[in-house]
Amino acid sequence: MKCALIIPAWQPHELFPRETAGSQINYWQPLGILSIAAVLKRDGHEVRLYNGAFLDNEEILGRVAGFNPRFAGIYSTTFGWHKAMQTAESLKHLNQGIFTCAGGPYPIALQEHCLHDCAHFDAVVTGEGEHTVQELLARLDAGSGLEGVLGLVFRRGAEILKNAPRPLIENLDALPFPARELLDERESYLPPPGTYRRQPVTVLMTARGCDRNCLFCFQIDKRRRAGTRGVRFRTVENVLDEIEHCLALGYREIKFLDDTLAADYDRAMRLADGIKARKLDFTWFASACVNQVDERLLRAFREAGCWAILLGAESGVQKNLNTLRKGATLDQIRAAVRAAKAAGLRVSLPFLFGIPGETYEEALKTIEFALELDPDLANFHALTPFPGTDLYEQQAKYGTVSRDLRDFTYQGAAFIPYTMTREQIHELRQRAFLRFYSRPGFLVRALLRLRNLNDLRAAYAGLRSLFWLWVRRSLFRRQRTASTAPAGAGTRAPAPGNTPG
User: Fold this and answer.
1) Contact at 8 Å (CB) between 367 and 431?
2) Which of 282, 419, 311, 447 is CA-nearest to residue 369?
3) What is the 3-state secondary structure (H, E, C) of 456-482?
4) How far is the CA of 260 from the CAs of 211, 276, 351, in angstroms?
5) In this structure, how many other beta carbons lie within 10 angstroms of the beta carbon of residue 301?
6) How far apart are CA 98 and CA 65, in angstroms?
7) Which of 487, 437, 480 is nearest to 461 (CA)?
8) Is residue 109 within 8 Å of 387, Cβ to Cβ?
9) I need a labelling partner for 329 at 20 to 30 A (CA). Which of 156, 219, 456, 461 fits?
10) Tens digits of per-residue pLDDT, 433-448?
11) Domain residues of the chain, as ranges?
12) For the domain 2-162, what is the CATH code?
């Protein structure tokens, strides 16, 4: 069967201010979609990927029309739901017989509400998509009904039927490697400037799930029952084989997308040792929880080619870390940053504003904490209540939520705690970026690290963003327009990438 997998068209300025988008934008390879594509290709289906990061809507529709698929899987985040609905409608106008199916974090969280919200979708995948889509296509091929396809909500005439959830995939080694060969714009998939060293860059996951319980984190297995401590691990050998596969394809750097690569300390050490034993030549970037790493492990990472690590910081006030259910202390954050620096790694830290119960004065302490830690990179986000998170489910307890899905980007202050205002969150983000990146010591250090063209590009993008942060004092406040209510949520509102626990 001909299958089109589609990420609806979007533009960087829809997520970030135009003036700073160049230093903030991520173009990650869509790993989940590529994994589904690999399973479908293994079954003999003809699969094509259309990524709206690099194609506009008309280009996508033109290519789909030329391909003439029977099945279209459309990916959606919360922010992108209105675009997914528009894409489904356009496809139905193109060919009423095409079977349209929604997948991604927003459909997984809202499930049958998405079909009530959009008449142009025939089905929604409610969990991991590999086996659900595989079985769905087999039913379509056979001309049989979709009753009993686990992990699927679908239309049967005027009815919307919801099948039982599909168990999570326990043996991740049984899945084929993601179909990276479908990527037409391989060289264009890049992290933000300054967060990679070599090109081309690919992404890889060594496990699925998380053993943490953060208030703002979306996980399919919300009760953390699957696998070991809520994490389903691939074997180290399988991961090393995929790394070799990526290097054979020509990739020179890998971003590990695990919420925390150190969820199992001994396994993380074996992975680093395995990279060295196989003499695999690539640079890599990983994320980890602050209470799961030490200098010994981080030195092993460094010796295996790791050059940078993202550590979950989030707040400089212990009360607010406790509210987020981080399970970490300020001293553990300090110790992890010291260990990473001692190991010779570049350190990236994310921070959040708008935590339930957080005051403006406490947020200022978070900025001071970021300056104290002095990482190589720092990001300052607005806490976002994505659908499926405990923050979203209990939003009335914690604050108010925007009804405009375009706010759900870590940039738009979709959640406002009762102790703060939207304007304060925007002002805090701008103040934090300015104070952190305007320091003479930071600027001199960045200048001394310039080595190649990539470094120069990163420096230019950063300086351009810094200029606009100084010039436009309301840079993060976008014009409010007509709201878009979340599907099936009534008066409630809905949430690559989570920050590590």
Assistant:
1) yes
2) 311
3) HHHHHHHHHHHHHHHHCCCCCCCCCCC
4) 9, 20, 17
5) 27
6) 11
7) 437
8) yes
9) 219
10) 999 999 999 989 888 8
11) 2-162, 190-471
12) 3.40.50.280
Q: Which CATH class is domain 190-471?
A: alpha beta
Report the run of H or E that residue 332 belongs to, with start and end: helix 330-342
- The closest alpha carbon to 406, from 414, 394, 417, 416, belongs to 414
pTM confidence score: 0.91
Nearest to 67 by CA among 182, 169, 223, 164: 182
Confidence of residue 488 (pLDDT cuts 50, 70, 90): very low
Of 150, 254, 264, 282, which is closest to residue 207 (Cα–Cα)?
264
User: How far is Cα 195 from Cα 458, in angstroms, rounded to an integer?
Assistant: 9
DSSP 129: -
Name the DSSP letter for residue 63: H
Provide the 3-class DSSP secondary structure of residue 227: coil
* Residue 47 φ/ψ, nearest 5 degrees: -120, 135
- Work out the burial of residue 324: count CB atoms within 10 Å of its CB; fewer than 13 is exposed, 13-18 middle, 19 or more buried: buried
Going by C-alpha positions, the residue among 368, 198, 224 that lies closest to residue 285 is 198
Radius of gyration of the chain (CA): 22
Q: What is the DSSP string of 396-464?
A: HHHEEE-S-GGGTTTTS--EEETTS-HHHHHHHHHHHHHHHHT-HHHHHHHHHT--SHHHHHHHHHHHH
CB-CB contact of 402 with 383 (8 Å):
no
Question: Which tokens go with 461?
Answer: 């993008």
Round the average pLDDT of the chain to a whole number and report it: 91
Closest CA to 32 of 71, 5, 69, 54: 5
* Mean pLDDT, rounded, for 252-262: 96
Judge if 2-162 and 190-471 fold alike in CATH terms: no
Distance (Å, whole) CA 246 – CA 459: 29
Query: At 421, which amino acid appears?
Result: T
